[in-house]
Design a protein that fits this description.
The protein has 166 residues and is an all-alpha fold. The chain has 5 helices and no strands. Helix content is 65%, strand content 0%.
Length: 166
Amino acid sequence: AEAEPSAAPRQQAEVKKLTTPDKVSIALCTIDLYQATGQLGQAGLGIDALTRTCHQPIAPLGKAKAMCSASVTYLITQLSLLASLLADASNKCALSVNLDARCAADALGLTGLLAGVATHSTNIYVMCKKDLPLPRRMCALPDVDSTKEFDSAMFNNTDLMHHGLC
């Protein structure tokens, strides 16, 4: 039997040493992608809020319409900021300048921040205007002894949970 000729040894590709700016760019790329996962979660919460606050038919006046409006602008905020992070990451991860990605990141970031202004403006209207037709929801949390064991004179976890959830 004839021996098969051995394949030529593989040559290892030359590894490019990263410069300090490249390392910074990769670090920022990683941070953008990490933040994008959190932003995706925020967008999911926005979709959930939208399904809870925008029941049809929406009353033409009052808190119900304002709360739906706040949910819509909140979702626009989160999706715009998510897209901005991904566009910024695509620029930084490439280790080269991509002007289109930078432009998109800035435009989407501005869109998200302006939608955030609209969200907070609507929330101020809903929370501060006392004479809207829909009454305020009172929060009724059950009295849970398991949280009280973590309360102390310096830190009251039970009150903190109540304020955070209500």
